[in-house]
Amino acid sequence: MKKLLLGNEAVALGAYEAGVKVASAYPGTPSTEITESISKYDGIYAEWSPNEKVALEVALGASIAGARAMVCMKHVGLNVAADPLFTSSYTGINSGLVIVVADDPGMHSSQNEQDSRFYGRAAHIPVLEPSNSQEAKDFTKLAFEISEKFDTPVMLRMTTRVSHSRSLVEPGERLDCGLKSYVKDVGKYVMMPAMARGRRTALVEREKKLQEYSEKADINKIEYNDRSIGIIAAGGAYNYAKEAAPGASFLKLGMVYPLPQELIKSFTENVERLFVVEELETFIEDYIKTLGVEVFGKEYFPKMGELSYELVAAGLKAAEVKNEILNLAFENRVEVNTSQIPPRPPALCPGCPHRGVYHVLKKLNLTVTGDIGCYTLGALPPLSSMDTCICMGASIGNAHGMEKALGKDASWKTVAVIGDSTFIHSGITGLIDVFYNNGTTTVIILDNSTTGMTGHQEHPATGFNIKGEPAYKLNLEKLCEAVGVRRVRVEDPFDLEKFEKAVREEISSQEPSVIIARRPCALLKRVQVKNPPYGVNSDTCIGCGLCIELGCPAMENRDFISIDETMCTGCGLCAAVCPTKSITRGDMRG
């Protein structure tokens, strides 16, 4: 019986049916659900790794040992994993190895837009791109076949809309492919220069064979209709184009690297005008232009953000494609005036332990180098307490760099903030750098006992593994001490007075220091405690607004300041900043 599955769930099902035995990942939207789903299948070892580089190395090791393996990440995670990626294409594999990368057009939950297809081309590995959940499952299984046939890792490129859309999937049986024998092969798996040169030759020869495979692959297929225009598309972009121009002829690509040169030429010779519809960069369009073929693309379709049926249809209309081919329903859409809708800027959750930290940092008027996670929201008003946010783990290096550029006086006015999961991901190396190079940076680890932004995944310092089973718990205090940091202290971010004192002491010290601001995420189920809500005594409230400046969504300021008790978690932070003690537990309005 068919199942209605997310694209990500379908990838997990495909991995299960392909006989995968090892799966690894670091959580990152929009890829996270793949590994969460895989962890529920018996017969597959799954793990959250400390970062994407480690995750790929784990999967590659499993593949070399003889087990089919898969690694999953979002597009920026591929930057972290780029080092082993490029060399894995040289070593090749033993059992199949698939690298799933989910791009995020439109940056729904990312710090940039990247097109991972370029990584596939740069690393000389094949790239498959499904357009719906059934293809997500089927292409995953096919990726393992290609991987073993051509002795190469294979990239499966997902995008947000395919990852997070549901469509019907026909389940199949799990393949019992067993373990391949491991044979020591120094020339293949030890990439010293002499061996690597030989493998480079093998890589080039393999790429020629993959080119030939792409020409005949069933997942690259032509659909002839009206031949006055032909459209080449892949993945989610194919769906948009198909809806926008149902009467057009299509070359639907399932393998987007290497591209099928002869098939593309054949298609272009049989249509009058050629368009490429693709999200983000001009990957396919540029390739076709190198063939000397006239093609239209980004002149009519946006180069940034997600595409949509409306955008593609409007682009084709602007290109004067005849109406008989197009679906012009977009022209009849009703425009909604959204200017009167109150803005709803993102904010830290009620009861978030990071709020107290940012309140203190703003009060002290410090420069704050930040990092990737839900605590990045501390950059927004009214907290406005973050100055930089570049990539995972960058906060500590940024602060250290500021000190080296501006001198030690700057370190007294600067702190780095970083989440517990991110600190383990790539922050620890920054701290080592600070200590090694005589820095005095103060680092605040915002330890909320989970990976919050992506939906509460475990990590090495939570004490649980991906299945929620007890696991070894990394001790952050001892880890920092092992680096050499002598000034390590744990503070409660809700105890504002004590926390402020701790920050003042550490930024004025003449050596590196770490403050671990430890409070579990207010939404974390295993520790969630809802205290009685607070209320405001309107008789004594002077309306100073200090409580409002905390940015808590439970606080309201209309005719008078009040607290929405359905949202209040009883953290008491607002009561702590109230100068007239007008905020106490319970509704005081009478």
Would you mind describing this structure in some detail?
- There is one protein chain.
- The chain is an alpha/beta fold and 590 residues long.
- It has four domains: 3-215, Thiamin diphosphate (ThDP)-binding fold, Pyr/PP domains (Rossmann fold, 3-Layer(aba) Sandwich); 221-319, Rossmann fold (3-Layer(aba) Sandwich); 353-518, 3-Layer(aba) Sandwich (Rossmann fold); 529-589, Alpha-Beta Plaits.
- The protein is built from 21 helices and 22 strands.
- The strands form six sheets. The chain has a seven-stranded mixed beta sheet with strand order 3-2-4-5-7-6-12. It has a five-stranded parallel beta sheet with strand order 14-15-16-18-17, sandwiched between helices. Strands 9-11-10-13 form a four-stranded mixed beta sheet, sandwiched between helices.
- Helix 18 links the parallel strand 15 (414-419) and strand 16.
- The chain is globular, with a radius of gyration of 27 Å.
- The model has no long low-confidence stretch (mean pLDDT 95).
Topology, please?
Elements: E1 3-6, H1 7-17, E2 22-25, H2 32-38, E3 45-48, H3 52-65, E4 69-74, H4 75-80, H5 82-91, E5 97-103, H6 117-123, E6 127-128, H7 133-150, E7 154-159, H8 160-163, E8 166-169, H9 186-189, H10 193-216, E9 221-223, E10 226-234, H11 235-244, E11 248-253, E12 255-257, H12 261-269, E13 273-277, H13 283-290, H14 309-318, H15 354-363, E14 367-369, H16 394-406, H17 408-411, E15 414-419, H18 420-436, E16 442-447, H19 476-483, E17 487-491, H20 496-507, E18 513-518, E19 534-536, E20 555-557, E21 561-563, H21 573-577, E22 583-585
Parallel strand pairs: 2-3, 2-4, 4-5, 5-7, 6-7, 10-11, 10-13, 14-15, 15-16, 16-18, 17-18
Antiparallel strand pairs: 1-8, 6-12, 9-11, 19-22, 20-21
Helix pairs in contact: 1-2, 1-7, 3-5, 11-14, 15-20, 16-18
Protein name: Indolepyruvate oxidoreductase subunit IorA
Cofactor: [4Fe-4S] cluster
EC number: 1.2.7.8
